[in-house]
Amino acid sequence: xxxxxxxxxxxxxxxxxxxxxxxxxxxxxxxxxxxxxxxxxxxxxxxxxxxxxxxxxxxxxxxxxxxxxxxxxxxxxxxxxxxxxxxxxxxxxxxxxxxxxxxxxxxxxxxxxxxxxxxxxxxxxxxxxxxxxxxxxxxxxxxxxxxxxxxxxxxxxxxxxxxxxxxxxxxxxxxxxxxxxxxxxxxxxxxxxxxxxxxxxxxxxxxxxxxxxxxxxxxxxxxxxxxxxxxxxxxxxxxxxxxxxxxxxxxxxxxxxxxxxxxxxxxxxxxxxxxxxxxxxxxxxxxxxxxxxxxxxxxxxxxxxxxxxxxxxxxxxxxxxxxxxxxxxxxxxxxxxxxxxxxxxxxxxxxxxxxxxxxxxxxxxxxxxxxxxxxxxxxxxxxxxxxxxxxxxxxxxxxxxxxxxxxxxxxxxxxxxxxx
Length: 420
Description:
Elements: H1 5-31, H2 34-55, H3 61-79, H4 84-97, H5 107-119, H6 126-136, H7 142-149, H8 153-169, H9 180-201, E1 205-206, H10 212-228, H11 233-246, H12 272-288, H13 294-307, H14 316-329, H15 333-347, H16 349-359, H17 370-381, H18 385-398, E2 400-401, H19 402-419
Parallel strand pairs: 1-2
Helix pairs in contact: 1-2, 1-3, 1-5, 2-3, 3-4, 6-8, 6-9, 7-8, 9-10, 9-11, 10-11, 11-12, 11-13, 12-13, 13-14, 14-15, 15-16, 16-17, 17-18, 18-19
């Protein structure tokens, strides 16, 4: 059946988002080169763009793309005069899969896991891991990644090129780590996925408070990872955390995109389906291990909010205790700041203010805008409005997000009015 060019391109875009990660993963296993695998996959995409509008979309588009990519691989090895054995292996593989699914179903999970661990390898810088993961596993273009993180497209392109070159130069094995290395490497993978989610949930810069597409990409990656590693509690903990936080997305901004703080949100707008999925993932994570990891603990905190029908119903004492447990697992001044907020809600601002004051000497929080934000809030609650105004103004000068800056300046103005 023939389709219009617009319909074909829309279909190709959807197919690419679904199939690209599996396609690249299978190709890396064959050619043992991430850069080359992506080039071959892109060649297959170009072929689809050229042929599908006139020839029609094939019944099995994923297999079609794989077949084209394998043909390009054979051509590549011919031109480079690679070992005849490799050529014959690829040729035989092509012949036996030409009219069927290009990758055996049992191989798909292994290939995807290998690709995830390769793209998130610690040998790469964090920003390179993020860019490469979105490119290879998220199916995003360089331009889409650049727009999502508000950086020049050339910067993202350079990060991706350097990441591929580093993987090749360091001879990073295309494999799933085992033993003690697995936990360390899995932590790197989860860090990348959560960084992507957080950038979508609370954008660090720009004019938008949220970038929902990035949240969706991160949740999709998390669900893929959970499907591939269903017995890893922290994977499920991260999925639970993202889904519980994302459930509040519709209530976090006004129609004009202005931020709405948690205590002021209309909880009727919270997504109950996502909350149900998140709570189920959290229960599963907690059932797999008696010792909760950082993502599972953060999901448990998010669950306290999700279960509260009104702000007054929130179990702040439990949240403070969970932050205390989190501080034992991953000591951090940011965790302590969040614990102080929970303490203020459970025991009053007077109990929390000394905890926050102690954090003002932390070098890691010197440019962290949420420290003066929290301190300003506590100072306003105890009637120290002049100090609160100064803290909110300082927080506004530190944030790079325009929506957040406007909110903080408004709070500084409120504190000034209270002082008057």
